[in-house]
UniProtKB/TrEMBL annotation:
Protein name: Gfo/Idh/MocA family oxidoreductase
Stretches of the chain forming a coiled coil according to its record: none
Domain GFO/IDH/MocA-like oxidoreductase intervals: 129-236
Name of a matching Pfam family: GFO_IDH_MocA
Length: 324
């Protein structure tokens, strides 16, 4: 049976999710589209129903599950509407535009008594990240000591300012680090380079592991994400993501994409396929609403530390039993 998926928001990520649903996701089909720009929605729909508002899409009998890829400020209200309708959700990160709003989403899901929300932290589905997780969990590296992260973008858009390097980019490293290590972050230090970047963020876990992350959103040369796990008996890291090595004009090397979509194309495909399978089974995969809340809560506190003394003791309350 093919389940009908509705996509809310048809910007870069919404359009990519719609493409994956149309061409690369057996067992599901693109059933509905909504975007505030009706012409853009129509261009992405490719035969799917174009809805006049998100609430009618959520309520429609054509729609079995929803992908939310609309602006960050709409995520909390739309996920709560999906919870009220009893429909599963794949929500692009962040879960909400503030940790307080994300916690309200968690409370709504806890009140329902079952998990409907998956947050789109797609690195959990990337083959390289998954292999690091497998090797770490197998214990062949001994106890984990350090996790090094690098997050570099070509350039930040004009609207990307203030703490967004932390709350919109670094949240990926927060989620990936918690998932890879199976640990919780308890404290953080943050410092900025000349002119405000790059950022260097160091977190300590509840197991005394160290997590270092460089966030450089105007690195110029390309989109580049890297991670290395250091254990007592060895290390494991991502191999270069480029598919080829180019030799030309007396030089050779790797190539880097302009943004994250080509780099994580396979992760997005696997994320969608696994989510659809989970929806059919009434199960859950990937980052939960609680994970989404914790990532936002940690990011907010570190952003506050950047504006203050550079040090934060991280607090986000006990995890509800639903997420055990």
């Amino acid at each position: 049976m093919s389940i009908g998926i509705g996509v809310i928001g048809t910007g870069v990520m919404g359009a990519e999710h719609a493409r994956i649903l149309r061409h690369e996701t057996p067992g599901a089909h693109l059933a509905g589209i909504f975007d505030a720009d009706a012409a853009r929605a129509q261009a992405v729909a490719s035969g799917a129903t174009v809805f006049s508002d998100p609430q009618s899409l959520i309520a429609s009998d054509q729609i079995d599950a929803i992908v939310i890829a609309s602006p960050d400020s709409t995520h909390a209200s739309l996920t709560r509407a999906c919870i009220a309708a009893g429909k599963p959700v794949l929500c692009e990160k962040p879960l909400a535009s503030s940790a307080a709003d994300a916690l309200e989403v968690v409370k709504a899901e806890v009140g329902l008594g079952r998990k409907l929300i998956q947050v789109g932290y797609m690195r959990r589905f990337d083959p390289g990240y998954r292999e690091i997780k497998r090797v770490k969990d197998a214990g062949s590296l001994g106890g984990s000591v350090l996790l090094h992260n690098v997050h570099r973008n070509v350039r930040a858009p004009d609207w990307f300012n203030g703490p967004m390097a932390i709350t919109n980019s670094f949240v990926h490293e927060i989620d990936a680090s918690r998932w890879l290590l199976g640990s919780e972050m308890v404290s953080a230090r943050v410092a900025a380079g000349p002119g405000g970047e790059p950022l260097m963020i160091t977190m300590k876990t509840d197991k005394d592991e160290l997590v270092s992350t460089e966030v450089f959103v105007n690195a110029s040369y390309g989109y580049h994400v890297h991670v290395e796990l250091v254990g007592r008996q060895g290390t494991i890291s991502l191999a270069p993501a480029s598919l080829t090595l180019l030799n030309r004009d007396r030089a050779g090397g790797l190539s880097y994409p302009d943004n994250w979509v080509p780099r994580f194309e396979e992760a997005y495909r696997r994320q969608m396929a696994d989510w659809v399978s989970a929806v059919k089974a009434g199960a859950s995969v990937g980052a939960s609403a609680w994970d989404g809340y914790v990532a936002s809560a940690i990011a907010e506190q570190i952003a506050g530390a950047l504006a203050g003394g550079g040090v934060a003791t991280l607090k986000y309350g006990p995890r509800p039993p639903l997420y055990d």
